[in-house]
Specification:
5-stranded mixed β-sheet; about 20% strand; binds adenosine-5'-diphosphate
Length: about 230
């Protein structure tokens, strides 16, 4: 499984690297003297570099999922949600999306901050990315018996029934051309589901094509004595 993963990552890395090399060579061979080509190819190089960065970040995130001596602390949920939203202010504006956040007062979880933050960010990013113009992103968090339940919903493109299990697989993209153009790596939900499992929680997806999707994550409070011994 590990060597499959390395092969897949290498394959995915090759595409942007080939594009960056190719367009840089074309520019050096003379295209740089044509202002229109210069601008166009530099933009492609920029997009492909960003994609490369995202792939590397996602690969690192996956490799860190199982790190056992992660620090556990009381993590307030509201600031994590706010950070996730702040980092996508521009796409939210560009797509004229409405945001609805409903969190129980002082909602918090005893957990690893970085992991919870990554779960929230990936789900919120997807809810923005796969939304329709003028749609709504909704984030609802409630306290449960021993943990929290977080729901991230969108009014976007939705996911067909037969794809709903597969979207959690590493590198799986529903519409490869479309997700690729929008910068997707196919790793976001794999990271989410592996992190959720690592934190002892569960994830559920309800979605309807053309209507929208709701991802529900249930997470338990970590037992400090099990995790905190190295910190
Ligand atoms: P990507 O980097 O392609 O977004 P993900 O692992 O986050 O990778 O998602 C896998 C696929 O699941 C995406 O390519 C997309 O087709 C689909 N998907 C994820 N989230 C949503 C959503 N909120 N609405 C519709 N489709 C989604």
């Amino acid at each position: 499984m590990q060597s499959d993963f390395v092969q897949n990552v290498s394959h995915e890395l090759k595409t942007p690297v080939t594009a960056i090399t190719g367009f840089a060579e074309t520019l050096l061979a003379g295209a740089k003297d044509d202002p229109e080509a210069l601008d166009k190819f530099l933009h492609i190089i920029q997009t492909e570099s960003q994609r490369l960065t995202q792939l590397i970040q996602d690969t690192l995130a996956l490799s860190r999922v199982g790190s056992s001596n992660d620090h556990i602390e009381k993590v307030p949920v509201a600031p994590l949600v706010q950070n996730a939203l702040n980092s996508i202010q521009q796409p939210l504006k560009d797509r004229k999306l409405h945001v609805n956040v409903e969190l129980d007062a002082d909602l918090s979880l005893d957990t690893n901050r970085r992991k919870l933050s990554q779960i929230v960010r990936n789900l919120v990013n997807n809810a923005v990315f796969y939304n329709k113009e003028g749609g709504t992103v909704s984030i609802v968090g409630v306290r449960t018996n021993g943990g929290i339940r977080l729901q991230v919903s969108d009014t976007g493109v939705g996911i067909a029934d037969d794809e709903q299990q597969r979207v959690f697989e590493r590198f799986y993209r529903v519409d490869k051309a479309r997700s690729r153009n929008s910068g997707g790596t196919g790793l976001g939900l794999a990271i989410v589901s592996e992190l959720v499992a690592d934190l002892g929680g569960s994830i559920h997806l309800a979605s309807q094509l053309g209507v929208g999707s709701t991802f529900t994550v249930a997470l338990p409070n970590a037992v400090a004595s099990e995790h905190n011994q190295d910190n």
